[in-house]
């Protein structure tokens, strides 16, 4: 637990985070796509082959929007989240939420400059909540590609401020982190997909080498029966489901992604993603089928709906009677 006498609000706000550079190639984008389940059940999936192969003469592979979460990975793993007066044990770090704004489609390969700033810091007594905002710019053009906001729970790092007036700071609009309620109505679409027993080992090749996801002994110390899946991998699975069911395979429709990690997933378990369409917002919830437990929830904002989907949505609004379009497995079309 940090000592409150060492905490200085002005020093915290004046702290400069180091810039990081993330360079990737088409190979990295394709390995990431495989890591979040693309073409996992059907190697020639018509919606997803473009993420791993130059299909129909396309010049470059396309990049999934959740790939952008990797841009901010360096801020979480290289010690740059240290703040004056805040002490924590990296082994007790938990990734709580991820918020992503997409400004333009990602190149198939690029060097990205990441500028990190403090978005929020909250003293919760026994723990601290740290929010880091990473804006990623294409190095060659200088164009802003995306913004990631990572919410990190630092167990044992609370108590760094006056206990009678716990410190709490945020510098982003409240509407970017709305209180999310999962609708009780029947979902607009449901997608079922299986993770592979080796899913975490494949996903870690994209740069997240936390041994919690690969080392049985580390996982056991952390309280798990075996290594668990990365939270951002689960997010990738859920957003893939939305791209397939709602965006009709067009990932460029996605504008904003928000995900809250609720519970762990074991590699090999089945994920069921339920989706509710509310205008241009998709509210979603992912459950583990084997345990019937919600592991992830959030929303995805879209630029637009396809004409056929708009007609389907409007018809449902008028009749209030709807049977969800269920797609079981990545091989279903």
UniProtKB/TrEMBL annotation:
The name under which this protein is listed is: MaoC-like domain-containing protein
Q: Which residues form the MaoC-like domain?
A: 193-293
| Name of a matching Pfam family | MaoC_dehydratas
Q: Record's InterPro entries?
A: HotDog_dom_sf (IPR029069), MaoC-like_dom (IPR002539), MFE-2_N (IPR054357)
Domain named Peroxisomal multifunctional enzyme type 2-like N-terminal: residues: 22-156
């Amino acid at each position: 637990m940090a000592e409150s006498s060492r905490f200085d609000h002005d020093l915290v706000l004046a702290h400069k985070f180091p810039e990081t550079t993330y360079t990737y190639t088409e190979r990295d984008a394709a390995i990431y796509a495989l890591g979040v389940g693309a073409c996992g059940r059907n190697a020639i999936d018509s919606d997803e082959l473009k993420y791993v192969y130059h299909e129909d003469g396309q010049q470059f592979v396309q990049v999934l929007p959740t790939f952008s979460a990797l841009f901010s990975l360096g801020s979480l793993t290289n010690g740059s989240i240290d703040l004056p007066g805040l002490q924590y044990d990296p082994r007790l770090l938990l990734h709580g939420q991820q918020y992503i704004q997409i400004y333009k489609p990602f190149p198939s390969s690029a060097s990205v400059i990441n500028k990190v700033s403090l978005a929020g810091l909250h003293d919760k007594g026994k723990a601290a909540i740290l929010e880091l905002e990473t804006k990623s710019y294409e190095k060659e053009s200088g164009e802003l590609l995306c913004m990631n906001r990572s919410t990190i729970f630092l167990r044992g790092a609370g108590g760094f401020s006056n206990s009678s007036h716990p410190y709490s700071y945020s510098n982003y609009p409240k509407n970017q982190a709305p209180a999310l309620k999962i609708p009780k109505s029947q979902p607009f679409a449901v997608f079922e997909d299986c993770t592979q027993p080796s899913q975490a080992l494949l996903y870690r090749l994209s740069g997240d080498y936390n041994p919690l996801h690969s080392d049985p002994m580390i996982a056991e110390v952390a309280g798990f029966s075996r290594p668990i899946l990365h939270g951002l991998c689960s997010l990738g699975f859920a957003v893939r489901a939305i791209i397939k069911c709602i965006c009709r395979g067009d990932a460029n429709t996605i504008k904003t992604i928000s995900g809250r990690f609720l519970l762990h997933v074991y590699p090999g378990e089945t994920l069921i993603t339920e989706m509710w369409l509310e205008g241009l917002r998709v509210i979603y919830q992912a459950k583990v089928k084997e345990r019937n437990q919600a592991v992830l929830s959030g929303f995805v904002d879209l630029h637009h709906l396809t004409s056929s989907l708009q007609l389907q949505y409007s018809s449902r609004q008028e009749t209030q009677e709807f049977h969800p379009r269920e797609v079981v497995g990545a091989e279903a079309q």
